[in-house]
Design a protein that fits this description.
- The complex is a heterotrimer.
- Chain A has a single domain, classed as ABC transporter involved in vitamin B12 uptake, BtuC (Orthogonal Bundle), CATH 1.10.3470.
- Chain A contains eleven helices and two strands; from the N terminus they run ααααββααααααα.
- In chain A, strands 1-2 form a two-stranded antiparallel sheet.
- In chain A, a hairpin with a 2-residue loop joins β1 and β2.
- In chain A, α2 packs antiparallel against α3, α9 packs across α10 and α9 packs parallel to α11.
- The longest helix of chain A has about 30 residues.
- In chain B, about 40% of the residues lie in helices and about 15% in strands.
- In chain B, the strands form two sheets. Chain B has an eight-stranded mixed β-sheet, sandwiched between helices.
- In chain B, α3 packs parallel to α13 and α7 packs parallel to α8.
- Chain B is elongated, with a radius of gyration of 21 Å.
- By secondary structure, chain C is an alpha/beta fold.
- Chain C has nine helices and ten strands.
- In chain C, the strands form two sheets. In chain C, strands 6-7-8-3-9-10 form a six-stranded mixed β-sheet, sandwiched between helices. Chain C has a four-stranded antiparallel β-sheet with strand order 2-1-4-5, covered by helices on one side.
- In chain C, a hairpin with a 2-residue loop joins β9 and β10.
- The termini of chain C are far apart.
- The chains are: A mainly alpha, B alpha/beta, C alpha/beta.
- The interface between A and B is large, with 53 and 44 residues.
Chain lengths: ~290, ~425, ~240
């Protein structure tokens, strides 16, 4: 029994990480209706930029990270104008496929620039022994991830709930044509959303790289868990993304100790399929409003 | 080896983008090489003319795995260039063509079909899955396939004509490493963790057999997909099972993640973590938690660090992959191929194979590979497994173990001098 | 822009359109239409289905490409950009209400204010709610849960909260009961008159237009024809 409790606790820790990747995807989906498959590579790129600032430019990590965040925000905006905005009326499927293409392109660029010597050891932001709960040890970096995930979720939730920009994002996501007709600056808002999601990606990348090891394809194996988590939570709900991801983390880690490591992935696939078939709006998501 | 793993990891990778990447990669097939001219010289053999010997490889050059695979053929190319600069082999220059297969068995097979009628021999490259897909076609055509990096037993056991590899199979390595661990620390309980590389069931069962026959016990085993995101649960299981040894056969990055999880969870076994040559990769060195170094022992196909006297060591020094075991293996394998060609008086495929099968304790790449021996029925060349430990940013040999496919071999390991 | 923020214009020249031509590909919908809405004037545009009523409003809002000799508001040309048009104080209440269904009524109003660059949301909200008090009890509800009539009322309020000089309403009566049409029409027109906002109102229901509007035009064959509102018989037969 103790083993299951420990596995569940370790599942919460890793689920928070899946959830943070999920935030960025959910935010973009909420405000533009596009599922961004490039989120993982954007995160990796951000981590590489911070890393290059440390190793090539000799900056301390805590100086490199803010610069990388700003750079990735600008890059997100550029991506919007270069990749997403041209012929934006082509429909969300078209745009979603563009994000897949972008992901492949970024991956190729990172392989070309950094791939030969990957993976790299990545500095942790905090060191320390962490804490022990049941028989599981939570290292300091894991506790930091949990804290950052909580802060980001609260900030994003407040942004969507209480600010004019957040309200505009939601209106734009629901009825882009009407939002424009009422005078919302759709282009500016969408560009801002892309910038923000790229920044979130970089935060995730920098936090994840010490344990996942920095390599161009670092995020790939996380995306299945993340997508399952956000589908489970409801694609449009930020708290849902976190809840769904934590559930995925717990269930897969408990399945691993109960059955086998392979069972962990099988269970996650099963969750994904069942949720999509039985409750497509997820746990906390809203049913799509019927459009006439 | 690491090569094989990293690619499988991508195949097993879950992201939709990955799947699409592979699908797209698979569509942009390479075109086969130009038709060969078998012209009159002293001999008439496919891919051999008076002044040229044509060799080829099908390698993972695209997709996310390219970075870990490419160094082996890049290093081989460097060695062939060096040989050519020095006048070639008996006046013949080596022409080496590498086509991309994106670690797709179908593309590898298509590449091979294009090579059979124009190239003399295939140079081994990345991967169990691709090697398993192409070895029968090559064997049937009588085309030598020299030294693939392969973990699938059927490719070399029983020996297929023309298919020869240097590296021991993982299953033999896990057996050897358990034997080494028991010799060094006394027999005890083992917990086996593997990534699905080559034939992983036999890697587990061979370790178990050796443990049980050596007075130890088998506690449990676990199979983890390559690129597993979180090894904490398995570390917790090991902590609870409390074995004397952890035996692993895992890719470089996965080995590091797993070892790091053992350290984080205070779950390192009492005696040792015993791994295969799959872990002996730059990706392990760059990422593992050094707190584990004292307890980690890996089997290695090559001596590490390599002898400074060896041509390959000198050739790769200062380059991008100076310390990359994969590149060393690629270069040293090329050395072995050139040596075999030199020793073959009438250069035909059959004669070349006969030369290699006659090798007994042949020192093909001194200071990197131990002497190799082949026979008509034994197509795995290395008879020695080095035991290495990570020491900072490189591996160092601490012992040599006789390695044999013979289950009953029990000659003991000797510490490195 | 400043007009929209500081209150409706009482001077200026309002909307002026001359020789407007609009088509979807080869199908020409408006052939040289001319129309004028003076500041504060309430103009009804009637016409059968497919006559181009909605097209006319979309063109003014900048959603569709067009050619025209003149298309100005207060003497300055209107750009083909909805954001710029709203900025000039011309706000469009689209056909079918187009509520943000998952947003509350209050949030719908806020979006209207954000789009209209309203600096003092609280004041704008008070002004509109004072004139359309039926909305007040619905403020906290999700807009998607309201009845069609309630949604229409909110859609008008969402347009008015931007303090427009000219409000354009598309098919206010569509799908509503006669009593709802009567009350919403009355409150909308009264509010516009109170605020001094011009109203360009297109509708199939010529009777309701005739009841409330200062002036009526009929859209037929791609041009606007004036209708003599004193001639009841003519009104009844305009479609035929």
């Amino acid at each position: 029994m103790g083993l299951y409790i420990s596995a569940a606790i370790s599942g919460i820790a890793v689920g928070l990480l899946y959830g943070m990747i999920g935030f960025a995807i959910v935010m973009l989906y909420k405000s533009t209706g596009v599922a961004n498959f490039a989120q993982g590579t954007l995160a990796t790129l951000g981590a590489f930029v911070a890393w290059a600032l440390v190793t090539d430019a000799g900056l301390p990590l805590l100086a490199a990270i803010p610069i990388a965040l700003i750079a990735s925000g600008m890059f997100g905006v550029i991506v919007y104008f270069v990749v997403i905005r041209p012929r934006a009326s082509a429909g969300n499927l078209n745009i979603t496929v563009r994000t897949l293409g972008l992901s492949l392109l970024l991956l190729a660029v990172m392989e070309w620039r950094w791939g030969a010597l990957a993976p790299y050891r990545y500095p942790t932001i905090v060191q320390g022994d962490g804490i022990q709960i049941a028989s599981v040890v939570l290292p300091a970096q894991t506790l930091l991830i949990a804290g950052v995930a909580a802060v980001i979720m609260v900030l994003l939730w407040a942004l969507f709930r209480y600010t004019r920009a957040g309200l505009s994002f939601r209106a734009l996501a629901e009825q882009p044509d009407t939002a424009r007709l009422l005078g919302l600056r759709a282009t500016r808002l969408s560009a801002a959303t892309w910038g923000l999601s790229a920044i979130l990606g970089t935060i995730v990348g920098v936090l994840l790289a010490p344990s996942a090891f920095l390599a161009p394809s670092m995020m790939e194996s996380y995306l299945l868990f993340t997508f399952t988590g956000i589908v489970l939570g409801g694609l449009t709900s930020l708290p849902g993304a976190l809840l769904g991801s934590v559930i995925v983390g717990i269930v897969s880690n408990v399945a691993i100790v109960a059955f086998s490591l392979e069972a962990g992935v099988l269970v996650v696939f099963a969750i994904l399929l069942i949720v999509m078939a039985v409750r497509p709006q997820g746990l906390l998501g809203k049913q799509e409003a019927v459009r006439l | 080896m690491r090569i094989a793993f990293n690619r499988s990891a991508k195949l097993a990778g879950a992201g939709a983008a990955v799947a699409l990447a592979l699908a797209l990669g698979a569509c942009s097939g390479g075109s086969p090489g130009a038709g060969g001219e078998t012209s009159g010289g002293a001999v008439a053999e496919v891919g051999v003319t008076a002044d040229t010997i044509r060799l080829a490889a099908s390698q993972t050059l695209s997709g996310p795995g390219a970075a870990s695979c490419a160094p082996s053929t890049d290093a081989a190319q460097l060695y062939f260039d060096k040989v050519n600069d020095e006048g070639g082999v008996d006046g013949r220059k080596i022409d080496f063509e590498v086509l991309d297969d994106g670690y797709d068995p179908q593309r590898a097979l298509a590449n091979v079909r294009g090579f059979i009628d124009s190239k003399f021999a295939m140079v081994g490259a990345c991967g169990s899955a691709t090697a398993a897909a192409i070895y029968r076609t090559l064997s049937d055509a009588g085309m030598p396939f020299l030294f693939p990096t392969n973990g699938v037993a059927e490719v070399v056991k029983p020996a297929s004509p023309g298919i020869l590899q240097l590296l021991p199979l993982y299953e033999d390595q896990t057996a050897s490493m358990v034997r080494y661990g028991f010799e060094e620390f006394g027999s005890g309980s083992i917990f086996v963790v593997v990534n699905p590389l080559g034939e992983y069931e036999s890697a587990i069962s061979r370790a178990r057999e050796v443990a049980e026959s050596g007075g130890g016990s088998f506690v449990d085993s676990a199979v983890a997909q390559l690129g597993t995101t979180d090894y904490t649960p398995i570390a917790l299981q090991i902590k609870e099972a409390d074995p004397d040894f952890v035996v692993m056969s895992m890719g470089g990055s996965d080995s590091a993640k797993f070892v790091n999880a053992l350290v984080d969870q205070n779950a390192l076994p009492r005696s040792a973590v015993l791994g295969t040559s799959a872990s002996v990769a730059g990706s392990f060195l760059s990422s593992y938690n050094t707190a584990a170094s004292d307890k980690v022992y890996f089997g290695s196909a090559i001596q590490l660090p390599p002898s400074a006297e060896n041509e390959c060591t000198q050739l790769l020094a200062g380059g991008d992959f100076a310390n990359d075991p994969i590149a060393l293996i690629g270069c040293a394998s090329a050395q072995a191929i050139v040596e075999a060609i030199r020793q073959t008086p009438e250069l035909t495929r059959a004669n070349l194979l006969a030369t290699i099968e006659s090798w007994d304790e042949e020192d093909i790449s001194p200071g990197i590979f131990a002497p190799v021996s082949f026979s008509a029925t034994d197509h795995i060349g290395l008879k020695t497994l080095y035991v290495v430990q990570p020491q900072g940013t490189e591996f160092g040999v601490i012992a040599e173990c006789p390695y044999s496919e013979d289950e009953n071999a029990d000659a003991s390991c000797t510490p490195a001098g | 822009m400043t007009i929209a923020q500081d209150g409706p214009a009482t001077t200026g020249r309002g909307l002026e359109i001359e020789n407007l031509v609009v088509g979807y590909g080869k199908a020409i919908v408006l052939h040289g239409l001319s129309l004028r809405v003076a500041p504060g004037e309430i103009v009804g545009v009637a016409g059968p289905n497919g006559a181009g009523k909605s097209t006319l409003l979309k063109v003014i809002s900048g959603l569709l490409p067009r050619t025209a000799d003149r298309m100005t508001f207060d003497g300055v040309p209107l750009k083909r950009d909805p954001v710029a048009v709203v900025g000039r104080g011309v706000v469009h209440v689209p056909e079918g209400r187009r509520m943000f269904a998952n947003l509350t009524v209050e949030e719908n109003l806020k979006v209207g204010a954000i789009g209209g660059r309203v600096r003092d949301y609280r004041a704008a909200r008070e002004r509109v709610l004072a004139l359309l008090p039926t909305i007040v009890p619905m403020l906290g509800r999700k807009a998607g849960l309201l009845s069609g009539g309630q949604q229409q009322q909110v859609a008008v309020a969402r347009g008015l909260i931007a303090n427009p000089s000219l409000l354009m309403v598309d098919e206010l009566s569509l799908g509503l009961s006669p009593s709802a049409v009567a009350s919403i029409s009355a409150s909308t027109v009264a509010t516009c008159r109170e605020l001094g906002t011009g109203l360009l109102w297109v509708d199939q229901n010529i009777t309701i237009l005739a009841k409330h509007c200062d002036r009526l035009v009929l859209l037929r064959d791609g041009v606007a024809e004036p209708v003599d509102m004193s001639d009841r018989d003519a009104l009844g037969s305009v479609y035929f």
